[in-house]
Amino acid sequence: MVWCPSCGKNCKRPVFVNGFLCCSMCGRVINEDNFSDEPTFVKNAGGQSQLAGNFVKTVQSDYSASRHRTLTNAHADMEAMLAGMNIYGGVTLLNPALAFYTIAVERNFTKGRKKELVEAACLYIACQENKKAFLLFEFSDYLRINVYELGAVFLLLCKLLSLEEHPIVQKPVDPSLFIHRFAERLLGRRNNEVIRTALRIIASMKRDWMQVHYTYLLFHMVSTLKCSKSEVIRVVHICEATLTKRLIEFENTESGGLTIEEFNIKAEELEQEYRSAKQPNIGSRLSGTNELLCEHKGSGKASFAHGLCESCYDDFIILSGGLEGGSAPPAFQCAERERMTEESTKVNQKETVTKKGNSKMPRFQALYHI
């Protein structure tokens, strides 16, 4: 039984004429393609029998059993990886990760590479897309493989997927995303006071042009809770030398000489200043131009501040920690120290010459009197 659009009725007994499916009531050709599950043979001009028609592939025939098995195994491996690393997300992470892996298989990216590396790289991209606070070294630590080897596969996969200009690759990872999870792993519970102060230290370190590292932030805050360096290093997988270097850098800043209470008060004042200072076109009034200079140039968006649209300005504030209350850039500080050293050297040389001249004056005066 087939539907005839001409009669508007179901044709119970359609007629097959020369391979065409026709309506038995009005004669309209319903279907010009005649498919058959059984092969038929006809005789050609030489009297030989040959197969009539052509084979038509089904939709699933493009996927061989081997490829289907490869994708199934990859799905199972990535699902086990998510469960082993306690990454929650389910299909919101598995589906895009499997789509990335399918593209990698289609373009022969998996040949010559360990499948665990490609699977971990696909999952990491999916985590970054969904704002999951997990780092690449955590995947390498779970798989017990070299993080540099995994990083190389990740970069090549991003190039294959044309993600070189994507924020996943271009924009630095905000350490604020990891504070909550590492605080819970280190303390065994959620401590809102520690997390809040750690986030403020992040903003302070950004304003002071420091290399922000969440390990130091947590250590600095939980030091009052009797957590040692070794415990922080064990949780976040970083060497003690790097942690010590961040401590020394922060100690040399203005915020390093404050107590926790003084630091929180200063942070609240800066946050209040930022909220009150966020007014449209504040940068254009300072620079005298309304030209949009960010990546949205030519999109029709209005200039919000300092040649940036509102969204780019907010990203800049999050990345830099704000425009007020920070130190000068390291390059400027280095040049300033060199300039002061040169001036001090010149002053010392002049003083030395003056002292030598004064020491010879009595001798000349004595000779003159003689």
UniProtKB/TrEMBL annotation:
Keyword Nucleus: yes
Source lineage: Eukaryota, Viridiplantae, Streptophyta, Embryophyta, Tracheophyta
GO BP: any one term: transcription preinitiation complex assembly
Subcellular location: Nucleus
One MF term in the entry's GO annotations: RNA polymerase III general transcription initiation factor activity
Highest taxon in the source lineage: Eukaryota
Domain Transcription factor TFIIB cyclin-like: 69-158
Keywords: Metal-binding, Nucleus, Transcription, Transcription regulation, Zinc, Zinc-finger
Ranges in coiled-coil conformation: none
The keyword Zinc-finger is annotated on this UniProt entry: yes
UniProt record similarity statement: Belongs to the TFIIB family.
One of the Pfam families matching this protein, by short name: TFIIB
Name this polypeptide is given: Transcription factor TFIIB cyclin-like domain-containing protein
GO CC list: nucleus; transcription factor TFIIIB complex; transcription preinitiation complex
